[in-house]
2-methylcitrate dehydratase (Naasia aerilata), 504 residues
Amino acid sequence: MRSLPVRVSRSEELLPRDSQLAWRIAEVAADPVEVTQEVADMIVNRVIDNAAVAAASLSRRPVVSARSQALAHPPSSGGAGATVFGETRDRRVSPEWAAWANGVAVRELDFHDTFLAAEYSHPGDNIPPIVAVAQHTGRDGAALLRGIATGYEIQIDLVRAISLHAHKIDHVAHLGPSAAAGIGTLLGLDPETIFQAVGQALHTTTATRQSRKGEISSWKAHAPAFAGKMAVEAVDRAMRGETSPTPIYEGEDGVIAWLLDGPDASYDVALPERGEPKRAILDSYTKEHSAEYQAQALIDLARRLHREHPEVADPSRVASILISTSHHTHNVIGSGAGDPQKYDPTASRETLDHSIPYIFTVALQDGEWHHVRSYAPERAGRPDTVDLWHKVRTAEDPEWTRRYHSTDPAELAFGGGVVITLTDGTVIADELAVADAHPLGARPFGREQYVWKFRTLADGVLAPAEIERFLDTAQRLPELSAAELAGLTITGDLSSVPLPKGLF
């Protein structure tokens, strides 16, 4: 890896291209390095993971809405079009709209992969736009692998170095550039074209974090899909010769100067050297539970406490529950956010999956976490749950914050410690650093677990034969021909799902 110093530059300095972050991203994307076997295997896992959570969300309103919009846009003249999750494989739409619909389906349940560092991210959001362009343009599985490896690499490298949330900018501002870079790799574009696409994709995908604050709406699922759609359109414009704001990151009126750390800011962004394999996907991890990633370990801890101390599920026996955790967990999904909605039993699902007080309470009482049952309005409104829920508070612990940002994989942690004080004065304390499914957890996810997740979430949604067909196709991804790439989708029975009406 080679570190690039990134700082704000005055217009009269005429910052050279090779000193601009967008150009270095373009050079990495244009480097035709082969994908290692280990990375290829993990890409297959994440394609399966995305399809699993998409299957479980096919009939949910935001997904149906996005799908209905996509179906109103048939394939454009430049290619064969792309498939849409839920529809038959011969039903094609324009690739930017496939990226939109499939991106919403993947993101809706907050249930796919994650990478946390200076910023946080769901790098699997790169997959829908890159697959859509691959299908539309007739690329094969090997080209798709290279494109996805780039998307993951660029997003994770940006997430390691540049915090967006510290300035209330939504994390998808790292996704627009990474998806554009991944599409550039897929298509074998030159650095100049990718450079312009990266700049446009960043410029059009910077937005505030209000989509993940307070009363969280269905836009939370749409935001990364929008970034993927913008990336496809940015690549299209760049291929036609259109240019972008330059320098997009370093300009005196650019992203860093006015949206991030300001005119005196500097960052060091490490990116692969020429010829160096793109391996960042191996540092990311998926979810066993449908909730914000920082809730994963705490769900597992709550399940353990449910088994070992069943009395803690009874609010009449509990005086207080204190969760000590990292700054980020406390302030984003904990009581440190100051959002009363995190304690509201009538709050939206999107709000509840960003409320660790709610999530911990339900997992503590039920000994499980389910992507539907655990969020049901009748479950959230149960009186004994509301009573216990309002006894849960979070607090930042400097040690958990340090471990959250550690660069040592053995120390990196996204969990916390819990102290439950009972009404009789008994104190029950426990902690868990990483989720069971984490690579360093009690039950790390491998291919078997990704397949299990797909089968579990697709059960009752897809026909048994369709489940087996998809799994066979996905696990042959590196060898798929261009014609076979259309099989990287799932078809369900949507006959009873009405489509909403809009402009299109």
About this structure: The beta strands are 2-7, 82-83, 92-93, 115-116, 120-121, 266-271, 318-325, 392-396, 416-422, 427-432. The longest strand covers residues 318-325. The CA atoms of residues 177 and 358 lie 34 Å apart. Residues 293-432 form a domain with the 60s Ribosomal Protein L30; Chain: A; fold (CATH 3.30.1330.120).
